[in-house]
Amino acid sequence: MHSPYTNPPKRLGPLRHVQYRRVYAGLAESIPAAKDDLRAAAQGSGLSDDVIETAALCLSELATNAVKHAIGNKARPRFSVAVAIRGTRQRWLRVEVHDPDGSACPAFPSKDKASTLLFEMDPDSTSGRGMAMVAMMADKTGVEGNPVWGKTVWFELKLHEQKCGGRPPENQEEAAVVVTEVTSVT
């Protein structure tokens, strides 16, 4: 199943520099659609099921933050998701969620602090875990923000060749192949 707001995503293909970008309406229904699009694009890419599910869970947390905290009161609420496999010697799966609200940028705790926060949190609490969970699961995290153009919250997962089935490119020309698809919501 794909998002009702866009065409189905293209597959990420063999592990090379490949990227896709999707724009979603800022609605709660768009969050599972974004996860489904990521899973659909990653099928057949050589990524392990563990990597795909970790990426989908982290994406869900970041998209939820965008919908709940950043774009709920905007005139045309939207968020975009960009997914890329990067690197030549070391491969990384990078997932970015961009929203138009750059006034308040979230912060990721360190891995050590994240585990403490999750351990000490009330188990019945329905919010407040997202950034700590992503910090625990991802290898790298970050936020890039600007009050004018918004913010991008991202995470990267380190891909291990034996786990993802890929091979490093044999030459720089192969590594420079970039396939970009940009779709938007009307």
3D architecture notes:
There is one protein chain. This protein has a 5-stranded antiparallel sheet with strand order 1-2-3-5-4. Mean pLDDT is 77; it is low at 162-186. It is built from 6 helices and 5 strands. The two termini are 20 Å apart. Helix 1 (30-42) packs antiparallel against helix 2 (49-70), helix 2 packs antiparallel against helix 4 (130-137) and helix 3 (111-120) packs across helix 4 (130-137). It is α+β, with helices and mostly antiparallel strands and 186 residues long. Strand 2 and strand 3 (91-99) form a beta hairpin. The protein has helices at 30-42, 49-70, 111-120, 130-137, 161-164, 172-175; strands spanning 18-25, 78-86, 91-99, 140-146, 150-159.
Key structural traits:
186 residues; 5-stranded antiparallel sheet; single chain; 5 strands; alpha+beta; globular; disordered C terminus
Question: What's the quick description here?
Answer:
It is built from six helices and five strands, in the order βααββααββαα.
Topology:
Elements: E1 18-25, H1 30-42, H2 49-70, E2 78-86, E3 91-99, H3 111-120, H4 130-137, E4 140-146, E5 150-159, H5 161-164, H6 172-175
Antiparallel strand pairs: 1-2, 2-3, 3-5, 4-5
| Largest sheet geometry | 5 strands, antiparallel
Strand order of the largest sheet: 1-2-3-5-4
What's the average pLDDT?
77
Give the class from helix and strand content and strand pairing: alpha+beta
Count of helix runs: 6
Any idea what the shape is?
globular
Strand content: 15-25%
- Helix-strand topology string: EHHEEHHEEHH
Radius of gyration: 16 Å
Distance between the termini: 20 Å
Can you give the helix content as a percent range? 25-40%
Instruction: Give the number of DSSP strands.
Output: 5
Low-confidence stretches: 162-186
